[in-house]
Specification:
Elements (H helix, E strand, L loop, with lengths): L1 H20 L5 E14 L7 E7 L2 H9 L10 E4 L7 E11 L5 E6 L2 E7 L5 E7 L8 E5 L2
Parallel strand pairs: 1-8
Antiparallel strand pairs: 1-4, 2-3, 2-6, 4-5, 6-7
Length: about 140
């Protein structure tokens, strides 16, 4: 009887470990977090600022190279007129978790394109890295 009980507990334990570490089922989730963007500009306060989060660097660089307006309202913010206050931008995050909540994969948009209209009318832009949202939710951008 004792051997049967020990064998049953062992099989149950192995089943639970297999359920967790060889997950057939996974929890897939999508979401986002608010990123606070502080704009610094020695040439004076910009007239307008746009910020857009991107999943790939080349898309962010293209937006800055051509000074393009944001394509998506979900992951961008336009402040016109800019009052000098910090800007809040939504950053996309997604992932997969095991049935018991262990993180299997996590990704977030890693690049931010910032475009500003300076007091003299020039448009300038910059691509900055977005920090891991679990570590920091704030970034400072120094515009030329």
């Amino acid at each position: 009887m004792r051997r049967v009980l020990i064998a049953g507990v062992a099989v149950l334990g192995l089943g639970v470990l297999a359920w967790e570490f060889i997950p057939v089922l996974v929890i897939i989730w999508d979401g986002g977090f608010d990123l606070t963007v502080r704009i610094e500009c020695p040439e004076g306060r910009p007239l307008a600022v746009t910020c857009e989060a991107f999943g790939r660097r080349e898309y962010a660089e293209e937006a800055v190279a051509h000074l393009l307006p944001p394509e998506s309202r979900s992951w961008s913010t336009v402040v016109d007129p800019f009052d000098g206050q910090p800007i809040t931008v939504q950053v996309a995050v997604s992932g997969r978790d095991s049935p018991f909540g262990r993180e299997l994969r996590r990704s977030q948009f890693p690049f931010l394109a910032v475009i500003a209209v300076l007091p003299d009318g020039r448009r300038v832009g910059k691509v900055v890295d977005i920090p891991d949202g679990r570590v920091s939710r704030e970034v400072s951008v120094a515009l030329p």
